[in-house]
């Protein structure tokens, strides 16, 4: 690696221009960057990878994001909503398989029935697992009051991707109405931090119209926002969405993947104590994409434990992996995969973000 690049990294000189330069690295220089990201994780946090059993409990969505396969205007997807019992069963599976924590994700709803249901469900999950299973929510934009209620009922981490930190680009990806408002999304992230959640965000990489300048700004956004956890991955086009019409302007899919790896490595170097997920979208492009993300500095993995008969209906993007497997298969497959890269599962641990404790210590 040219010494100037090494110097930027060693001196943590994270200017937008420098980040842009580093995001563009390929070949041996990229290898070196990814290794530095991986080494930073191993040195600071060790080789444990934390599991979050992901339950995609409903694909009913009131929003209409232009990129998302479960947007409300997509009539070609069968809608489902798992029963509380099915969710509880998945929670028990996670607990018994020592996953340590659970992520509840669904299409976005904010009606009272939904808010109340989640509240009760959180209490039921806590009761069914002796309070031992950590719970992360990924349920979109809600009022500060709803966030507070769910926090008090047992959720302690929340994921809300900003999708892109560039307001103009954000508006090109969403309908122009107050249900899809950039300012509101930012406010939600602030509310989550204020309520006391470990707060996660993230972006899609390789969106139509997105440049390395945008992505460098995304990295700085996450740092400046003092975010505790991040999930980010390549944008993958879905035929039944409006954004599909832009498929000809996209970076090649391998390019989106390589830049995603650079994003992971750089964010790890910029924020050594946060949690970074190796996302499913990485695996959708490369069969060992998640492993490569872990080797670049990711330390969280979210095995899908949604009952397998519904998995094929939660297609945010096409070619989503593991939609035919059952949770048991994923569990076995994962531990072998980790072993192959010298990592170990952080069984029975919540695997909280160390950054959160530093951020909130006063
Ligand atoms: N490609 C990649 N990621 C997507 N998501 C939604 N649609 C796509 C897509 N087509 C991501 C968004 C969302 C998360 C749950 O899934 O970032 O926040
Ligand atoms: Fe469901 Fe965007 S389409 S939240």
Task: Reconstruct the topology from this structure.
Layout: H1 3-10, H2 16-23, H3 27-45, E1 48-58, H4 84-96, E2 101-106, H5 112-128, E3 134-138, H6 144-152, E4 157-159, H7 167-173, H8 182-195, E5 198-201, E6 204-205, H9 212-224, E7 229-231, E8 233-234, H10 253-270, E9 275-278, H11 280-285, H12 289-295, E10 300-301, H13 308-311, H14 327-340, E11 344-345, H15 354-360
The protein binds 5'-deoxyadenosine and FE2/S2 (inorganic) cluster.
Residues 67-68, 161, 163, 204, 235-236, 238, 281, 316-317 line the site of 5'-deoxyadenosine.
Can you tag this structure with a few keywords?
globular, binds 5'-deoxyadenosine, 12% strand, TIM Barrel, alpha/beta, 362 residues, two-stranded parallel ribbon, 8-stranded parallel beta barrel
Task: Describe the model.
The chain is an alpha/beta fold and 362 residues long. It has a single domain, classed as TIM Barrel (Alpha-Beta Barrel). 45% of the residues lie in helices and 12% in strands. It has 15 helices and eleven strands. The protein has an eight-stranded parallel β-barrel, surrounded by five helices. A two-stranded parallel sheet has the order 6-8. Strand 3, helix 6 and strand 4 form a beta-alpha-beta unit. Helix 4 packs parallel to helix 5. 46% of the residues are buried. The site of 5'-deoxyadenosine has 11 residues, from loops. The site of FE2/S2 (inorganic) cluster has 10 residues, from loops.
């Amino acid at each position: 690696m040219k010494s100037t690049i090494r110097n930027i990294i060693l001196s943590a000189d994270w200017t937008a221009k420098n980040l842009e330069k580093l995001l563009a690295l390929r070949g041996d220089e990229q290898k070196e960057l990814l290794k530095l990201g991986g080494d930073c994780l191993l040195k600071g946090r060790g080789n444990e990878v934390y599991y979050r059993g992901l339950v995609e409990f409903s694909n009913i969505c009131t929003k209409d994001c232009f990129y998302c396969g479960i947007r409300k205007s997509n009539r070609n997807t069968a809608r489902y909503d798992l029963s509380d019992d099915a969710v509880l069963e998945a929670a028990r599976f996670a607990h018994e398989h020592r996953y340590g924590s659970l992520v509840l994700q669904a299409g976005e709803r904010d009606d009272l029935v939904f808010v109340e249901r989640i509240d009760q469900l959180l209490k039921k999950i806590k009761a069914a697992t002796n309070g031992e299973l950590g719970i992360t929510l990924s349920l979109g934009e809600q009022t500060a009051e709803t966030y507070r209620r769910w926090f008090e009922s047992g959720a302690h981490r929340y994921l809300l991707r900003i999708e892109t930190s560039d307001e103009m680009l954000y508006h090109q990806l969403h309908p122009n109405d107050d249900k899809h408002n950039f300012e509101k999304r930012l406010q939600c992230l602030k509310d989550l931090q204020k309520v006391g959640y470990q707060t996660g965000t993230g972006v899609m990489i390789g969106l139509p119209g997105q440049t390395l300048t945008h992505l460098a700004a995304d990295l700085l956004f996450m740092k400046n926002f003092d975010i505790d956890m991040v999930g980010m991955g390549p944008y993958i086009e879905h035929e039944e969405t409006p954004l599909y019409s832009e498929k000809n302007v996209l970076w090649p899919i391998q390019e989106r993947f390589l830049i995603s790896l650079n994003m992971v490595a750089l964010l790890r170097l910029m924020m050594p104590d946060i949690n970074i997920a190796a996302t499913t979208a990485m695996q959708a492009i490369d069969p060992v994409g998640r492993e490569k993300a872990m080797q670049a500095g990711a330390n969280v993995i979210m095995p899908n434990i949604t009952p397998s008969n519904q998995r094929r209906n939660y297609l945010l993007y096409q070619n989503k992996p593991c939609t035919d497997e059952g949770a048991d298969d994923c569990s076995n497959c994962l531990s072998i995969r980790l072993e192959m890269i010298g990592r170990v599962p952080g069984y029975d641990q919540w695997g909280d973000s160390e950054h959160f404790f530093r951020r909130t210590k006063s």
